[in-house]
Amino acid sequence: MKTQVGIIGAGPAGLLVARILQLNGIDSVILERRTRAYVLERVRAGVLESGTVDTLRTYGMGERLNREGIPMRSMQLCWDRQKADISLDDGTGRHLTTYGQQKIVEDLILQREADGLPIVFEADVSRLDGIEDAPRIHYRHNGEDKVLECQFIAGCDGYHGVSRRHIPGSDEHVFLTEYPFAWLGILAEAAPLAARRGFAHSTRGLAVASARSASVGRLYLQVEPDADPNAMSDQQIWDELDIRMDDGTAAQLNRGPIIERSVARLRGYVCEKMRHGRLAIAGDAAHIVPPSGGKGLNLAVGDARIMAEAIRRLLTTNDTTLLDSYSEMCLRRIWPTVHWACSMCEALHIFPGQTSFQTRMQYQTLNHWGNTEIGQQRLRKAQLGLPYEI
Ligand code: RFL
């Protein structure tokens, strides 16, 4: 098989690169290891920066998003049985939007299929070659070894993908921190309460309440790194959420059936070398942020915009200038965003062996973000996201 751009991964990054290229008249084939059903059902992110929403609208993916996306104009921080309600209004009309990542993925997949463009599911990419001049992607599909020949490879295959290791010397450009805890994430058929959305610091560990729709809540508890997602009963989870989120009023969350549970480890990871020859990586393939900032998907969208434009310039006018500065331009958004997500992570979780002095230090950080003008500005700016250069 031959195409102009071979895209590895049908996550938000790969699907968006494909969509932008399509609207610029460039052909691509997406190779995705998982089944179509698995990709459509995978529950992950849900908080979108306004730049992400604008990008999806610009590329014709705004219809359902405009209808079902829930504006989020404030955020709560709770700690030490007190609460701060922080406005996200920076006077520019920007706000966050709640819209599940699986809906974005579904919108992009259905559009691509309606346009008759190829996504090969259950295509497991094993290796790449020719990335200097004539790229080839080797993959296994329907029990057969196959090759996709292309002019450029977009490595959008997430943290565990194969693309990153094909960038020569990428290991020497990696920066990593692993946190000694994980998040138990649940989806629940319980109407989220606008007055109780945000992050809670508790001496028992972090808790987070957010929404996926008007009737479905997305909630998280800090747990041990190797916790079993099924170790707690539904009632134990709700009780623990209420205890950790207590802002001094003893108000309770709406409860309902838990329809999905998963445990995700928390880490910060950046590979600063994001391109070599005719291969570039984007999204989780290049960086992971702890989910405390709600930034992973938003960063993937930022990379996808730059990658698609760099490929367009290469393939239409043989101009490599943007491609040559791809890593640096992406990193100008990535590092400050990683810094914010890790700062949130470190202020909100209880670390093993943490002293009461360290807990008091966390309270000071949270008090700064929650109750001072300059701290609220910092939080607002970081949550709303950095502007795009491209
Ligand atoms: P993805 O979504 O991981 O997609 C990569 C795709 O590549 C496929 N793949 C392969 N295909 C073929 N051959 C191979 N050898 C392959 N290896 C891998 C995979 O099957 C997959 O389909 O990466 P992408 O596109 O870069 O998107 C990144 C986002 O998914 C991720 O950053 C966010 O979900 C992170 N995240 C959040 N981000 C936000 O912006 N806001 C949030 O509120 C938010 N909450 C979260 C999150 C991530 C979480 N977990 C589970 C990691 C909450 C959680 C719990």
How would you describe what is shown here?
The chain is of the alpha+beta class. It folds into 2 domains: 5-72 and 99-176 and 268-344, FAD/NAD(P)-binding domain (3-Layer(bba) Sandwich), CATH 3.50.50; 179-266 and 353-384, 2-Layer Sandwich (D-Amino Acid Oxidase, Chain A, domain 2), CATH 3.30.9. It has helices at 12-23, 36-41, 50-58, 63-68, 101-114, 234-244, 296-317, 321-324, 326-348, 356-371, 373-384; strands spanning 5-8, 28-32, 47-48, 70-72, 74-79, 82-87, 96-98, 119-121, 124-129, 136-141, 144-149, 152-155, 174-188, 198-201, 207-211, 217-223, 258-271, 275-276, 279-281, 287-288. The longest helix is centred in the last third of the chain and has 23 residues, at 326-348. It is globular, with a radius of gyration of 21 Å. The mean pLDDT is 96. Bound molecules: 8-demethyl-8-dimethylamino-flavin-adenine-dinucleotide (RFL). Residues 8-14, 31-34, 39, 44-47, 101, 123-125, 156-158, 161-162, 183, 185, 264, 283-284, 291, 294-298, 300 line the site of 8-demethyl-8-dimethylamino-flavin-adenine-dinucleotide.
The CATH superfamily name of the largest domain is FAD/NAD(P)-binding domain
Q: How widely separated are the two ends?
A: 31 Å
CATH class of the largest domain: Alpha Beta
Question: What number is the mean pLDDT?
Answer: 96
Ligand catalogue: 8-demethyl-8-dimethylamino-flavin-adenine-dinucleotide
Helix content: 25-40%
* C-alpha Rg (nearest Å): 21 Å
Structural key phrases:
single chain; 390 residues; alpha+beta; FAD/NAD(P)-binding domain; D-Amino Acid Oxidase, Chain A, domain 2; 8-stranded mixed β-sheet; 6-stranded mixed β-sheet; 11 helices; 20 strands; 27% strand; binds 8-demethyl-8-dimethylamino-flavin-adenine-dinucleotide
